[in-house]
Amino acid sequence: MNVRLISGTYGGRVIEGSGTDRTHPMSERMRSSLFNIVGDEIEGARVLDVFAGSGALGLEALSRGAESATFIERDRVAQKIIDANITTLKIDKTKAKLVKAPAASWLRTTDAGQFDIIFVDPPYHDLQLSTVAKISGLLKPNGLMVLSYPDKAEVPTELGVVVVDNRSYGNAALAFYRKEDV
Fold first, then answer.
1. pLDDT by residue (tens digit) across 97-107?
2. E strand or H helix at 97, and its extent?
3. Looking at residue 20, what is its pLDDT?
4. Using an 8 Å Cβ cutoff, are 133 and 145 in contact?
């Protein structure tokens, strides 16, 4: 399944979908809504796209002016697709970094610093909430993390960040967390 980037430098360009049934691509409607909500924060941001699938969230952020995007993906098929999408869009490798590892393993060894915006879209059958909680620790003060999760699931609230918004889109939902400025 192909994915269309919505706006910005690469707006209208079609990229390859994740290519595996082990990922669940975010609908264009949901991505559009997500970027309408966070739009003002994208320009110049350091973005982390965890459980990246096709890389659509990080690529959309780059299209809209993010300084850089780091993609974390463990599935080998999805990794190849992210690589191909970065190449197809001719994105400078200094702006787009693909980490080929499970999120939990990467977290144990990373020195990536902090991010302005983090997109977390774990497999719905295994939300890996302990890993998600650790990922929230990579947010800069006042940074934003967006978690995609099944609509019927309970939104996690003990992440060391504050839930500032929650939106439902049929069988999926988005929770928006803000790291309080300390």
1. 999 999 999 99
2. strand 96-100
3. 57
4. no
In the predicted model, what is the mean pLDDT of residues 133-137? 89
8 Å CB contact between 54 and 121: no
- Letter for the amino acid at 118? I
Distance CA 62, CA 44 (A): 9
* 165: CB partners within 8 A, 6+ apart: 37, 174, 175, 176
Task: Give the pair of three-digit tokens for residue 118.
Answer: 């983090």
Task: Please report which confidence band the pLDDT of residue 126 belongs to, taking 50, 70 and 90 as the band edges.
Answer: confident
Burial class (CB in 10 A: 0-12, 13-18, 19+), 158: exposed
Residue with tokens 């997500």: 34
- CATH number of 2-178: 3.30.428.10, 3.40.50.150, 1.10.472.10, 3.30.450.20? 3.40.50.150
